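Quick one: examine the sequence and fold tokens given here and explain what the tokens say about the fold. Here goes:
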Amino acid sequence: MAVITGATGGIGEATAKLFLDEGSRVMLVGRSQQKLDATLGRLAAEGNAAGFVADATDEAATASSVGAAIEAFGGVDVLIANAGTEGHFAPIEALAVSEFEDVLRTNVIGVFLSMKYCIEPMKNRGGGSIIALSSIAGIIGAPTMAPYIASKHAVYGLVKTAALELAPFGVRVNAIGPGPIDNRMIRSLESQFNPEDTAAAHEFVLSNIPMQRYGTNEEVANLALFLASDESTFCTGSIHMIDGGWTAG
């Protein structure tokens, strides 16, 4: 049974679909009831999927979402901590504290909270797999992206620490590090990189990818499935890049 946060986004929905296709039951967690209903409608998996409205930064709602997953499906085996935001891009001296905090609350505290409330249920099941969405931003720097870069580095640090804490209990913890993926977030990034010419921004991003294309939501979902499965039972504490070679140089 898998809990997926940020489940109404491109990666979240693709991951939910793949897990359902593979026979898993899934609790989709998102901020919008309307988006959850639409996503569940597209998945057409009544009985094997349910939705719960919770903001990733809301501790009580996050705890309740895990409780609802246990009530509906009997336990938790997999967590995909996928909820995230790109935030506002600006030089460090031009950023408001609130802008910095908003990104860290969603991208770091949100991951921490979903981990916190899924750990005990996984221990009760004798093990599990926690997968947090980091980014290439988790291992590199980039001008004007301080909040996002800092948050994704923090996710990787949280993953490494959790992996050491939870290894004795059979709970594996890994991060996924996507590069540019063809979805809403990359469109936002392009518009922030170059508001006057998003096509030029697109070409600039492509120039940094050795494979010369963006990844897909489904490719990220495939990696999540691998890390959730018994095919990866000796994998823990790492960030698994899916970036078309961006960080290889």
In short: The chain has a mean pLDDT of 96.
